[in-house]
Design a protein that fits this description.
single chain; 387 residues; alpha+beta; Alpha-Beta Plaits; Arc Repressor Mutant, subunit A; five-stranded mixed β-sheet; 16 helices
Length: 387
C-alpha cells in the first residue's frame, strides 16, 4: 500500500486540495498561489509521511512533523481558524483512507486492521503537533496585540499625544464605564470561580466586538472597567450594546457612556466613571446611562458645603426610621399614597400618619412644590453622605 500511495502522492495532493476548496469554506477564500504552493506541498508531505508509516509501521518522527508545525504557524498568522485547519487534516485522512481500501478483499482483513491502527496513530500525532504549533503562534500574536492594545489605552487615557502619534486610532470612540454583576458560577470559595469569571469577560468582549469593525479596547476585570468602542461611522445604539453584553454574560450590567474623539477620551472616561458611580449610588437599575439621565444626582454628588446641610434637613427623622423610609417611598412612587402603602405593606392611613409626623418634625411638606424639591435633594444627598 505504501508503494501504491507513494506513486500517486503528487496527483492525490492536488486532488485533495481541490476537495478542501469544495468542502471547507475558508479554503475558498485563500489565494490561488497559496493553494497551489504551500497548501499543496504540505498535503503531499502528509501523504508521503503516511507512506513512511505504512513502510516502517511507526509514528512520524519530530523531523517529519516539523513542516506541519511550520505550516500550522503560518495558518495562525493568516488567521485561518484552527477548526478549519483540523477539518482539512481530518477530511484528508478520511479521503485517503477511503481510496486505500477500495480494492480490499476479505483476505486483506488483517492488513486493513494494521493500516487502520497506523492511520489513527497518524491522526493523533498530527493533531497534537498542529494544535500545539498553531496555539503557540496565536499566543505570541495575542501577546503582541495585547501589548499594542494596552499601549493604545494608556495613551488615550493618559492624553499622551506623543504616544498617540505611534498608535493607530479610530476617528472616535464610544467610551463606556461598566459595572458587571457576579455570575452564579463565580463563587470565590469554589474551584472554577476564576474560570467562570474569565469566561464571563470573554463573552462580554465578544458581544461588544460585534458592534465594531476595528479592535475594541478593554480595561476590564470581573467587576467592570472601561470599554472603548471605536466608531468610524454611525454610533451603535448604546442600549443595544449593553443588552447584548448582559445577555451574553448572563449577568446585570450598568454602563455610563460618552462619545469622544481620541483627544477627548481621557476626559470622557472620567465623566463616564462618575456617571456610573452616581447611577450605582442612587440605586438605578441595570442599563445604559448618560450624564443627562442623572443630572440632579450628579450635581448633588459634587463636593460642596451644601451637600451635608441638605442631608441634615432629614436628621429629625433618624430616631424613627419608618418615617424616613415612608417619605422616601412616597417620593419614589410619585406621591401615590396607595402605592406607597403597598410597597411598605401597611394601610394607607398609616402612610398618612407617618407623612404628617415627618412634616411636623422636619418642617418640610411634600405637598408644597418648593419643599418637595428640597426633600428630594435631601434624600439624594443622604445617599451620598450616610449620617
Amino acid at each position: 500500500m505504501h508503494e501504491l500511495l507513494e506513486r500517486q502522492a503528487t496527483s492525490l495532493a492536488r486532488q485533495l486540495v481541490h476537495v478542501f476548496v469544495e468542502e471547507i469554506p475558508i479554503y475558498r477564500r485563500l489565494p490561488r498561489e497559496e493553494l497551489d504552493g504551500d497548501i499543496t506541498r504540505i498535503t503531499e508531505h502528509n501523504l508521503r509521511m503516511i507512506c513512511e508509516m505504512f513502510r516502517h509501521g511507526r509514528p512520524p518522527s519530530s523531523a517529519e512533523l516539523a513542516p506541519l508545525r511550520d505550516s500550522a504557524a503560518r495558518r495562525a498568522q493568516e488567521r485561518v481558524p484552527l477548526e478549519a485547519l483540523l477539518a482539512a487534516y481530518h477530511l484528508g485522512t478520511r479521503w485517503v483512507w477511503d481510496r486505500l481500501i477500495t480494492t480490499a478483499t476479505p483476505a486483506d482483513f488483517a492488513a486493513v486492521v494494521d493500516m487502520n491502527r497506523l492511520v489513527l496513530l497518524y491522526s493523533e500525532v498530527v493533531t497534537s503537533a498542529v494544535c500545539t504549533a498553531y496555539l503557540s503562534e496565536r499566543e505570541g500574536m495575542l501577546s503582541q496585540e495585547q501589548h499594542a492594545m494596552h499601549a493604545a489605552v494608556s495613551a488615550l487615557l493618559g492624553g499622551d499625544h506623543t504616544a498617540l502619534a505611534a498608535v493607530r486610532l479610530a476617528p472616535g470612540y464610544l467610551v463606556m464605564a461598566i459595572a458587571v454583576g457576579a455570575h452564579p458560577d463565580e463563587k470565590q470559595d469554589e474551584p472554577g470561580g476564576s474560570i467562570a469569571a474569565r469566561r464571563k469577560l470573554a463573552r462580554i468582549r465578544a458581544a461588544v466586538q460585534r458592534y465594531a469593525s476595528e479592535q475594541v479596547l478593554f480595561v476590564l476585570d470581573a467587576t467592570g472597567g472601561l470599554v472603548l468602542l471605536p466608531c468610524s461611522g454611525e454610533v451603535p445604539i448604546v442600549t443595544e450594546v449593553v443588552e447584548a453584553m448582559s445577555g451574553a454574560a448572563g449577568v446585570p450590567i450598568w454602563a455610563a457612556t460618552e462619545q469622544a474623539t481620541p483627544a477627548e477620551v481621557s476626559a470622557a472616561a472620567g465623566v463616564a466613571e462618575e456617571v456610573l458611580e452616581v447611577a450605582r449610588i442612587f440605586g438605578r437599575p441595570p442599563g445604559a446611562y448618560l450624564l443627562a439621565d442623572v443630572l440632579l444626582e450628579y450635581q448633588l454628588t459634587r463636593p460642596s458645603r451644601a451637600t451635608a446641610r441638605l442631608a441634615g434637613l432629614l436628621d429629625p427623622l433618624l430616631d424613627n426610621p419608618d418615617l424616613l423610609r415612608t417619605l422616601k417611598a412616597y417620593l419614589e412612587t410619585g406621591l401615590d399614597r396607595r402605592r406607597t402603602a403597598e410597597l411598605l405593606h401597611v394601610h394607607p392611613n398609616t402612610v398618612d400618619y407617618r407623612l404628617r409626623r415627618a412634616v411636623s418634625l422636619t418642617g418640610l411638606d411634600p405637598a408644597d412644590p418648593a419643599q418637595l424639591q428640597q426633600i428630594g435633594a435631601a434624600l439624594a444627598a443622604r445617599r451620598l453622605t450616610p449620617r
